[in-house]
Amino acid sequence: MIVKSYLFLEKIWFRFNQKIRFILVGGFNTVLAYCLFAGLYQFAGLNYNLALITQNIITINVSFLTMRYYVFQSHGIFWREYVKTFSVYIGMYFLNAFVLNLLVIVLKLPPLIAQAVYLTVSTITTYLLHKYFSFRRP
Q: How many angstroms separate the CA atoms of 59 and 31, rounded?
């Protein structure tokens, strides 16, 4: 029963345009990333830079798996796509760390607000990098 229900929902899911699927999956991944960052910073008491690193280690893998299947429906070589996706997220991590520190140190924004600002702006960049690099079809 559960498998039939999942397959039915999956058929409906893949009828959505790729951009809609990205918004939904990317939204899930963004909320997960922000909640992990906030939890590690606010509740675990980690420095915001350490919270950012830890959050990225966890969410890169979740994002790769969800984007690969539920957004781009990729059947490419798993490890090649993983390395490409990882390189995108490493680049995005360094940009994130720079912007986060700029917003916190220079503009004096609280880390949770600064991270929310960054995540809002980075979403389109991430989509384009995945579409034309990580999961590009020949």
A: 10
Helix intervals (H) in the chain = 2-13, 18-38, 48-66, 78-101, 111-129
CB contact set of 113 (below 8 Å; sequence gap of 6+):
103
Q: 86-114: per-residue pLDDT in tens?
A: 999 999 999 999 999 999 999 999 999 99
Between CA 125 and CA 127 the distance in angstroms is: 5
Q: What distances in angstroms separate CA 109 from CA 2, 114, 119, one per listed residue?
A: 46, 6, 15
> Are the C-beta atoms of residues 58 and 36 closer than 8 Å to each other?
yes
Q: pTM of the predicted model, to two decimals? A: 0.88
Length of the chain: 138
Write the pLDDT tens digit of every residue in 34-74.
Answer: 999 999 999 999 999 999 999 999 999 999 999 999 999 99
CA distance 106 to 46: 20
Tell me the CB-side half-sphere exposure of residue 120, using CA atoms within 13 A. 6
